[in-house]
Model the fold of this input.
Amino acid sequence: MIGRLRGILASKQPPWLVIDVGGVGYEVEAPMSTVFDLPETGREVALFVHYAAKEDTVSLYGFLREAERVLFRTIQKVSGIGAKTALAVLSGVSTDEFARLVQAGDIAALTRIPGIGKKTAERIVVELRDRVDGMALVAPAGAANMPKDPQAEAASALQQLGYKPAEAARLVKETFASGDDAEAIIRKALKAALR
Done:
């Protein structure tokens, strides 16, 4: 599996990118939210990657932010939604906005996203309402020089341990104290969860 690519942006023809990693050009499909934030060709870039293997094809999908990759994977768990629709969602709204629309049950706004009809929007709201709760806390970790947010790191780590996003967000919010680093928040959150 390929989880991350770091290399030179050799080509940018939306939605397709070619990332040159040590002389090998990886063709990656990316949402517009990622394409718009990329540097010009010839510059170094690092992308979070979703690797998808089917019977006769292998596809790579790239994202500047981990939250976008999480949403891309999450939305495909809804029956009837594949990679193309997931990319359309990410190209149409931010992860925070998508989480807000789902939590509010805003079917009308969701149907304005290309590829999402009324029935699909209803399924998204029903199936994802409890999963998108903590999505805003997932760190936009694409840029290496960004200061790290300990709350976002802790929420992401808790989700990797199997907690639902809403539960991870709640635990982080309840246990965070000013000055805590991610490790301290995680330790306190796990203790709180066991009570």
Remarks:
- The chain is about 45% helix and 20% strand.
